[in-house]
Amino acid sequence: MRVLLINPNTYRFPPVPPIGLEHVAAEVEEAGHEAKMLDLCFYDSPLKDIDEAVAEFGPDIAGISVRNVDTVLFQTNEFFLDDIRNIVRHVREKYGLAVIIGGAGVAADPEGILDYLGADYAVAGPAEGAINELLEDIVCCGNADRIRYRRYRYDLQCPRKTGGVEYERYMRQGGIGGFDTHKGCSSSCVYCIEANTRVSFKKIDDVLAEIRMLADQGCSRFHLCDSEFNEDLDYSIDFCNALKREGPGIDWALYMKPANYNKKLFRLMKESGVSLITLTADSWKKCPLYWTDIEKIVFSARSSGLKIVVDFLCGFPYEDEETLRFYLDLFRRVQPDSVGINPYIRLYRKLQITDIIFRDEALKRNLIGYREDGNLVRPVFYNQLSVERLRVLIAGEPIFRIEGPERGVNYSRQ
Ligand code: SF4
Questions:
Q1: Given the CA of residue 259, which atom of ligand 1 is nearest to it?
Q2: 32 C-alpha vs ligand 1 centroid, how far in Å?
Q3: How many domains does the chain have?
Q4: What's the CA-to-centroid distance between 60 and ligand 1, angstroms?
């Protein structure tokens, strides 16, 4: 089968290379199919580029990645699915091609997003291990399930093919290279679509090979694409050790959660080239040890010479201002390099926080963008703490920043 893989993501603040599609391209070729990558990130007339690619390649089927449904921030929100829907429609109506959608964004609501886009099939979660089975079912039986859920494996092998992605151009425009070490997250944050997903680790040698391949293409700065690096302390330590010993010498940034750490990990992160840690934190009720871990992680990072910033989501149902003041005082005391505060919670249909809010009519009054059909594909936010009030609470102190009014990510603000 000839598979045209389209990256429709034209958001450039910063531009992000389509690593999921690179894995899919390699995976389908290993099964004997032919893949062509069409990366639309830097092009302004996507339908024309698609026409040219179809004329040249003659695909039998198209795969389109949905990295994000929207930018997740309330202010400056950009919703991406309408542009992707135009591409799906064009490919299906003009060329009669079936369309498979996949990518991290699809996992937010596979049924809702598949219906919204009008595509034929969806892979929910990482497509590695699922895409070839789906193609086989389409070819052989013609009765494949509309939604294929990811399969979990241990010692995940994910070949990767970067042909068709102009890394030099990504670098010139503020992008950096990406790699991941595992899929899934064992934590259970009520607002996160990754919560409680089973975890599969990649072989460390395979990850190092990916990094070397990208370094050969000119990448020296990287961002880890794991939702959180420290899913497993032993693996994290082994990975940093291997990167320090055998890697090409890179500068990399990563996300961490308040768990699974020790001093050795911070030392090795520093020695393997980590330049920025973003610590994910939220004010949803937890055991007190959660905040002790946050304090220790910030202290350990700083004493190892690592820059650490916090992404802090707050303003949860039933949270009072006194609780929030307590957390802000804690940040003032431990002094991370900065704290980005977001008081708007993006809701998706299957999240635990969505259930909690929808069971209480009083809470539903704090919804923004909600329509009674219960469909949360278009952005719906929960907000009970105004930006004006938050400004008073942070009192202009420079370590705090309210997330949303400006576009960008932590590593591009360095
Ligand atoms: S630790 Fe991070 S990735 Fe895991 S569930 Fe929480 S927010 Fe999501």
A1: 1
A2: 36
A3: 2
A4: 37
Taking the centre of ligand 1 as the mean of its atom positions, its distance from the CA of residue 51, in whole angstroms, is 39
Pick the last residue of a domain from 149, 164, 185: 149
CATH of the domain at 292: 3.20.20.70
pLDDT tens figures, 153-163: 555 677 888 88
Q: pLDDT by residue (tens digit) across 271-328?
A: 999 999 999 999 998 888 999 999 999 999 999 999 999 999 999 999 999 999 999 9
Q: Find residue 79's DSSP bridge partners.
A: 70
Q: Phi-psi region for residue 150, left (φ > 0), alpha (ψ -120 to 50) or beta? A: beta
Instruction: Let me know if residue 143 belongs to a domain.
Output: yes
Range of the domain at 256: 176-344+383-413
Which tokens hold the place of 327? 């957390």
- CATH at 34: 3.40.50.280
Q: What is the pLDDT of residues 165-190, one digit of tens each?
A: 999 999 999 999 999 999 999 999 99
Best residue for ligand 1 mutational test, from 181, 182, 192 (most atoms within 8 Å of Cβ): 192
Asked if residue 237 belongs to a domain, the reply is yes
Counting Cβ atoms within 10 Å, is residue 388 exposed (0-12), middle (13-18) or buried (19+)? Answer: exposed
Q: Is there a domain that residue 353 lies in?
A: no
Q: What are phi and psi of 270, to 5 degrees?
A: -60, -45
Q: Produce one character per residue of 330-360: b if its CB has 16 or more CB atoms within 10 Å, e if not.
A: ebeebebbbbbbbbbbbbbbbbebbebbbee
Q: Is the CB of 280 under 6 A from ligand 1?
A: yes
Return the CA Rg of the chain: 22
* 142 and 183 fall within a common domain: no
Q: Is 279 in the pocket of ligand 1 (CB under 6 A)?
A: no
Tell me which residue has its CA closest to atom 5 in ligand 1: 195
CA of 199 to the centre of ligand 1 (A): 12
Task: Look up residue 103 and give its DSSP letter.
Answer: B
Question: Partners of 224 in the beta sheet?
Answer: 179
